[in-house]
Structure formats: C-alpha cells, structure tokens
Amino acid sequence: MIYLDHAATTPLDGRVLEAMMPYLRDQYGNASSVHAMGQAARRAVDRARGEVAALISADPSEIIFTSGGTEADNLAIAGLPPARKDGRRGIVASAIEHHAVLHACEAAGADGAHLTLVRPDERGRLGLETVRRAVDADTALVSVMAANNELGTIEPVREIAEIAHEQGALMHTDAVQAAGQLPLDVREMGVDALTLTAHKFYGPKGIGALYLRRGTAIDRLQLGGGQERGRRAGTENVAGIVGFGEAARLAAEEMAARSGHVAALRDRLWQALCDVPGAERLGDPEHSLPGYLVLRFLGVDGEALVLNLDLHGICASMGSACSSGSLEASHVLTAIGLDPAAAREGLRLTVGRGNSAEEIDEVAHVLRRIVERQRELTGSRD
Ligand SMILES: Cc1ncc(COP(=O)(O)O)c(C=O)c1O
User: Fold this and answer.
1) How many Cβ atoms are within 10 Å of 277's Cβ, its own excluded?
2) I need a surface site. Which of 62, 141, 279, 310 has the fewest CB within 10 A?
3) Is 322 among the residues known to form the active site?
4) Which domains does the chain have, with CATH numbers?
5) Catalytic-role residue among 105, 274, 315, 322
6) What is the per-residue pLDDT for 112?
C-alpha cells in the first residue's frame, strides 16, 4: 500500500501511541476526580495542554480541548458572535472553508446572522481588497482558514486579521491543515481563535482544540459539567489529549525535517508527471503546504483516477475526503473558477513523512499509465 492521502488523515506515530497506552490501560482516572488516579490524569492533561499551546505559541489557559476540528470550528462560529453582545450580526468567511465552518456559518445565517462569503483568486488565495470590501462595522467575526484542505494554498491570515480588527471584528482561523506543517504563532498571526486537530499531524482521531485568546468571550455549545473552564462540557478524553500533546511536541521538534522531506518528494512527483499531456497543477505553488500536489489531467475523471490508483494499492483523493462519495463537484474547485466538469477532474496527492522516493516513482509510473488508459477508454486525447 502506498499512502498519499495525508490531508485526509495521517497514521498514528508509534511514539504517540506509546505515550497514550498507559492512559488507555492503567491510568483510567477521571481528570475531575480528587483522588490520586484522577490527579494523575489531570497532570497528564495539563502537560499535554502545554505542549499543544507551545505548537502555536499560545498560553496553556487559552487551549480548549474538543472532539476534533469540526467541533472547534462549530464552537468558534456559533459561540463567538453571540457572546459579543454588541448587536453585530455579520460573519465573513471564505467560500473555500471546510464544511465544518461553512455549514456552521449557514446555520448562523438561518438564525439571522448576515453571512458574506469571499471568493479567492484562481489559485485559491484570498485578495486583501476583496476581504476589505466584505468587512464592515456590522461584522462580528471573520473566519479564514490558514491553509486550504483541497488545494494546500496558504492564506494571508495575518493581514486579514488586521483588516478584521480595524473594523472591530474578531478573527478565527481554521489551522487544521497548517498546524504541524508550518510554524504558527497566534500572537504574530493576530488571531482571536484558531482550530486544531491531532489526526492531521500523526496524532489520534477524535481530539482537537480551539485556541481562544485570553479574555475573549464565547458561548458554549453543549451543556453539562464545568470542564475546560466551563467552555466545553464533558469528561476529558485523557488518552486522546495525551496523544495530541505528544504529536504536537514531535511536530514542533521535527517540523523543518518533515517539511523538507515532503516538499522534496512532492516536487519529485510533479517533475515526473508534468510532461503528461494535459497535466495541470492546481493551487498556488508559491504559497502551498509542503506535501500537496493537486492536479488535473484534462478530460480524465478524478474519481476514475482515484479508483484505479486504489486498484494498484495507492491511496489518493479527489478533493476532501468529507465530500468524496457525494456527486456534487468540490465547492473549492468551483470557487476557483473551474466548471463542474473540470472540477471533477481534480486529483489530490498529499505526501507524508513516511513516504519514500521509491514510492513516489512508483506512483508517477502507475498514474501515467492510468491516465493513458482512461484516455483510450473515453476517446479523449488531452
Ligand atoms: C480544514 C479542515 N477543517 C476541519 C476539519 C475537520 O477536522 P476533524 O476531522 O478533526 O473533525 C478538517 C479535516 O478533515 C479540515 O481539513
């Protein structure tokens, strides 16, 4: 099996699993219990909170653990605007946000918020002037992702945060794809809230966090106990949190080496494919996450490519895993101007730290043959 779908999820690092094991087996205390078992769990949660905070240069008290990126996005979009209590009703988001943000924005819109979606350029990058035109004195919140999950395009979050703050709006960024790949510093970025999830950087699934700048009010999503300083009710997922902390610590320590490795393999893959007739690279190579190669082979259906790669033991993706299986073309690829037929030609290959040059060469070889075969079958040349 060759796995080139690291944007969907990553394998669990063996060192992370080892750090989690005691909390799955013997140290099963509830972090809210006063006895020794409970206090051991509490200490483990606190240590992990420090490690997650360090990954984004935040203070540990600014980290709210959640069940993942989806919940953190929902918490930010549903919880920040109403907590302002100043009557502002505007939410501005990019049109290429993950559905966790977009659907939460639409729900807020149905509840009376004024929703404005900002379109990116043809490479998936937001223009500052476009954002400036959308943000006004009614805007409560601006939400723009740090990097897009279908294209890998890195967005100018710091500059957008400045625009938001000039108008008195709060700034949230979904950094699910960027975290662990790029150095992130919440103070330098100027964001008020930032979403993270562990499973995109070799941590476990089902655990994430919302960074919330100290002093920022937020409404809670779910009712229950007083965990996470009353901001997220529910018994803590101690083993998951410990794994998240260890994955964050390792990502911070190894970031430069990992990025160098995946960027070199990504470039090798593109070099091996760029002369295939009708091959087009999507996204913005100058502002891209290191492991992303998003392609389109003119006239060749992306789903057929994914299925045929799968038959050869190669895991790739059409767009985001969450929208696979739905017949609608990717909202991201249509937002950058592709018509629905062209958008269905998108193929996302995302390299990870475990991939080798031999695997990349094998994928290039197989993919080239599949593209040729598909063209023979459908009668399309390029
Ligand atoms: C940009 C982005 N936001 C949010 C999510 C959702 O995160 P999770 O899978 O932890 O719920 C994902 C992952 O699929 C993502 O890529």
Assistant:
1) 12
2) 310
3) yes
4) 2-8+255-378 (3.90.1150.10), 14-250 (3.40.640.10)
5) 322
6) 95
